[in-house]
Amino acid sequence: MSAAVSHTRDGYRPTDPIAVPPLYAWPPRPLATLRWLATGLLFPWGLAFIALAVLAWRYLTPELARMVTLEPGWMALIWLRNTALLTLVAGGLHWWLYIRRSQDRAYKFDGRWLATDNRKFLFRNQVKDNLFWSLISGCTVWSLYECLTLWAYANGFVALIEWHEAPVYLGLMTLAVFFWSTLHFYLNHRLLHWPPLYRLAHALHHRNVNIGPWTGISMHPLEHLIYFSVFLLWWVVPVHPVIVILSGFYQGISPAVSHSGFGKVLIGERARVSAGDHFHQLHHQCFEVNYGNTPTPVDKLFGTWHDGTREAHAALKHRRRARQLG
């Protein structure tokens, strides 16, 4: 096995620095941008969530006419659908990577396995702790936001646009989900690092330094209220319900992938599927860098971008020493 995927306590480190997407390059790089949109942003997980949103709207969502009134019955179905899909993705990744350990530590960012006897977690177990906060609080708040949004569309409080009416507009809004989600994440994440809010809520998520698939939306209920407010855009911007559902899936399920703890998932002898987000992994490890995501590189503007290199880590240590001395 190569050094890039060696079984060391320090774990896997990609050799290439984390780069700002070519979308933001000047002068423009149109071919590189199209390649990044297709293979960096959308393939494979972005397309998978779009397809899942279409299927969920067609087969796993009550009729819009039923949503005119807020009733426990159809709202519970939305919660069950979201909980089942999150369990399928997060649970599947956890089984493959942490229970079956199908690739051992290959491509694992942190060489340690998840905590099983640590009293900072509920039940002294990191996975059980993460499961509790993700399913009981996370899926509930996510589903409530989605239900209120679909209720608003069902009642005509926000115009519902059909795909045949504006396919180009809705196609652009589908793409906008990924950029709005990552911009919103940076804004609410910086807010949650304000010391009073951090101590009250966000510290619960940051107990997870060594992260796994169930860590993604393992948060305090107050953080869930802030984090899933991503839906509020669709209270004023008219779209189709598929896009509303996609927003929920990208906000609620994709963190299971980005927090998987493994840079790649190995399937068979040759297949390697991109998984964990090294950029966000560095935030969990270093705390004061990489508050956002790479599709909207706001961290670059504010000097908190860590590209994963030794030089960037040395610069971070220098800044910390300077603050201590100052």
Task: Give structural notes.
- With 326 residues, the protein is mainly α.
- The protein has one domain.
- 54% of the residues lie in helices and 2% in strands.
- It is built from 12 helices and 2 strands; from the N terminus they run αααααααααββααα.
- It has a two-stranded antiparallel ribbon with strand order 1-2.
- β1 (264-267) and β2 (271-274) form a beta hairpin.
- α2 packs across α8 (241-252), α3 runs antiparallel to α4 (126-154) and α5 (167-192) packs parallel to α8 (241-252).
- The longest helix is centred in the middle third of the chain and has 29 residues, at 126-154.
- It is globular, with a radius of gyration of 20 Å.
- Mean pLDDT is 95; it is low at 1-8.
Q: What is the gist of this entry?
A:
By secondary structure, this protein is mainly α. The protein contains twelve helices and two strands, in the order αααααααααββααα. It has one domain (20-325).
- Total beta-strand segments: 2
Shape label? globular
Q: Tell me the strand percentage band.
A: under 5%
Task: Provide the domain count.
Answer: 1
* Cα radius of gyration in angstroms: 20 Å
Biggest sheet: strands side by side, in what order? 1-2
Q: Compute the separation of the termini in Å.
A: 45 Å
Structural class: mainly alpha
Q: On the 0-100 scale, what is the average pLDDT? A: 95
Low-confidence runs of at least 5 consecutive residues: 1-8
Helix content: 40-55%
Element pattern in H and E: HHHHHHHHHEEHHH
Please tally the helical runs, counting DSSP H or I stretches of 4 or more residues: 12
Largest sheet: 2 strands, antiparallel
